[in-house]
Amino acid sequence: MPYAVTTGLVGSQQISLFNLPDTTSRQQPGLIVDAVDNYWGGGEFIYCRANGSIRQNGLVVITPVVASGAWRYDATEVPNTANLGRMLGVATMVATSGQFIWVQISGITPVNCQASVAADTTFGIAAAGQGGANSAGKQVLNARILAAGATTVVKTNCVANSGTNRLIVPNADGWFCGVYLSGTGIAAATTVTDIDPSGTVVTLSAVTTAAVHGSVTATYNNATVYYNVAHLNRPFAQGAIT
Asked: 128-156: buried (b, 16+ CB within 10 Å) or exposed (e) per residue?
């Protein structure tokens, strides 16, 4: 289900891990709101302009810049650089330059990573836009892994016709765009590309190979991309260590 904003914001598209970016600004970039989801819990989100391509749940740097005579908050994929000392967040959706998205800065969220990271450990910047194993000068501070990228979330009583890209599920809690699906009738390498606001209709990246009547498993990695679940509290990249 989408997050419910609890800070009185009216007229905005709901925040979720399965939405589309705004092509024009609907809020003032830099606006921070509190929101709550029945699966992921509460969190804080900041509205930002993408200043480059951003991957699903990518690790981003948040940078205030002056544009058209006013301050604007831009998000770019974090560079694989030590000692940045910069404010970080996790993008809630894929975006390209000039689009506007919500970036999570506190709460629980999957983070796009290069490798699985053990639960209850720190993590760091491993590649541009990605987390991974911690290393000197690259730690993501004020953040910690809660669940490794080997996490699986199974939904029972799923239904789909053969040859369709729509899957009916009892709920989509724990699923998000980019997560990898498997099960009888699910094509190899299928990912979630969209979830409807009710959380019961999932759009697949590939059509089903047979009718689906049963369990479908979401796995938080495909052995290349790992979605480690992290707890954030206004994280930032490690600064100077010497």
From this structure: ebbbbbbeebbbbbebbbebbbebebebe
